[in-house]
Design goal:
Elements: H1 4-14, H2 26-31, H3 33-43, H4 55-68, E1 76-80, H5 86-93, E2 97-102, H6 105-118, E3 122-126, E4 138-143, H7 153-166, E5 167-179, H8 180-185, E6 189-194, E7 207-215, E8 220-229, E9 232-243, H9 245-254, E10 258-262, E11 276-282
Parallel strand pairs: 1-2, 1-4, 2-3, 4-5, 5-9
Antiparallel strand pairs: 5-11, 6-7, 7-8, 8-9, 10-11
Helix pairs in contact: 4-5
The structure holds S-adenosylmethionine.
Length: 284
């Protein structure tokens, strides 16, 4: 039973607009025991474009990546935020040596079990791509599903600098991002419900709020989830930075990488009306 006063207090706090990137719960979102189970189910549903893209998209993307980057037995690939290894294991099936890095032990356990069952050249590291250091250099680094958008500009600079350090002298970095067209679909809203999103946020009884904030001047959106349970409240912040390609091209340039613009991570052609685009950063 959740006390009415607690729900009322949370309702008042939920409408408070945080400063851009003033708080991050990116790691908690993917490591909470209950939420990470929900996320893993979403990842593994090939029909959902939620935690991972759909199965058919991933299959096409894998074919294109293997061909475009000429992956073979001598190739070393790194996937940042690899989740349950849908790309890492897929790329390892082509014979490449693939490494996945993620903060979610639950997703990594799934990824490792698939790799072991198929005897793949895939290995997994439980770590944070902002703070980890890695031995070795990679011919291809990927970061897929617009995860760049959860990072502040400071964290992006850190990530790009890490990527530059981990790339081999002829290496490439492939990632995708939300576009201006995506930003234009975002509108402010406030919704609340008992067991918001059908129990996604907790196995216990809860009352949930979803407050969407839009920061027009910086093309930033935030979904703020306030979850009120019998013992207290928790808040999760899902930031979504949207970009003009030129901005990321410039930032990659500052990290020492030269950009090529694409429509998506399956080799599509760039389309300014599309809600996403992809970039390849290469060592000059
Ligand atoms: C939207 S999912 C995408 C997973 C995968 N790239 C895919 O497309 O199937 C984002 C992943 O990034 C991971 N992640 C988020 N922040 C991270 C961080 N700072 N360091 C490492 N992994 C992180 C999450 O645990 C999650 O598995």
């Amino acid at each position: 039973m959740i006390h009415r006063d607690r729900i009322e207090a949370a309702r008042n706090a939920a409408i408070v607009r945080p400063d851009p990137f003033s708080v991050s719960t990116a790691v908690e979102l993917w490591t909470d025991p209950h939420i990470s189970q929900q996320m893993l189910s979403a990842h593994l549903n090939p029909h959902l474009d939620a935690a991972s893209r759909t199965g058919p998209f991933i299959d096409g993307s894998l074919r294109w990546i293997i061909d475009r980057f000429e992956l073979g037995p001598d190739s070393r690939v790194l996937d940042l935020g690899c989740g349950p290894g849908l790309y890492v294991n897929g790329l390892a099936r082509s014979g490449a040596s693939a490494t996945g890095l993620d903060v979610s032990s639950r997703s990594l356990a799934h990824a490792r079990s698939v790799a072991a069952a198929e005897n793949l050249r895939a290995s997994y590291i439980e770590s944070n791509y902002l703070s980890t250091d890695l031995d070795g250099q990679f011919d291809l680094i990927v970061m897929i599903f617009c995860d760049i958008g959860v990072l502040s500009s400071t964290d992006r600079a850190q990530l790009f600098s890490n990527v530059r350090r981990w790339l081999s002298p002829t290496g490439s970095f492939l990632f995708d991002a939300h576009s201006v067209a995506e930003f234009e679909t975002r509108t402010e809203e406030a919704v609340e419900a008992p067991q918001l999103m059908n129990g996604f946020w907790s196995a216990e009884d809860y009352h949930g709020f979803k407050n969407t904030f839009v920061y027009e001047d910086t093309r930033l959106a935030l979904d703020k989830y306030t979850i009120v349970g019998p013992d207290g409240s928790r808040v999760f912040y899902n930031w979504a930075q949207c970009f003009e390609p030129e901005q990321l091209t410039e930032e990659l340039g500052e990290a020492g990488l030269v950009s090529e613009l694409l429509g998506d991570v399956a080799g599509g052609t760039y389309d300014a009306t599309s809600r996403e685009f992809a970039l390849i950063g290469t060592v000059p």
